[in-house]
Amino acid sequence: MGAKMPSSDYNKFLSAIKYANDMRDSAEAKKQLQAIRASMIEKYGMNNDDVEYLMRQFRYNI
């Protein structure tokens, strides 16, 4: 499961994901989502329930 993600970080990541999902340029959106994914994994690990859920919110496969 990994460390519990504080709600402030969760909301920050979710907001960034929603912004990237709404971008018109899918190439730029994918770059943003890659950066978000890397940041979440670096901070909380791949086996974190919150990270897994947030990555399922990505509109684009990266």
Please provide a written account of the structure:
The protein is mainly α and 62 residues long. Helices cover 68% and strands 0% of the residues. The chain has three helices and no strands. The chain is elongated and about 35 Å long. It starts with 6 loop residues before the first helix and ends in a 6-residue tail after the last helix.
Explain briefly what this protein structure is:
The chain is mainly α. It has helices spanning 7-21, 26-44, 49-56.
Task: Give short descriptive properties of this protein.
3 helices, 0% strand, mainly alpha
- Terminal Cα separation, in Å? 23 Å
Our Rg estimate from Cα atoms comes to 11 Å
Low-confidence stretches: none
Number of helical segments with 4 or more residues: 3
Largest sheet: none
Provide the succession of SSEs: HHH
- Global morphology: elongated
Strand content: under 5%
* Class by SSE composition: mainly alpha
Helix content: 55-70%
Q: Let me know the number of strands.
A: 0
Give the integer mean of the pLDDT values. Answer: 93
Task: Give the topology, please.
Elements: H1 7-21, H2 26-44, H3 49-56
Helix pairs in contact: 1-2
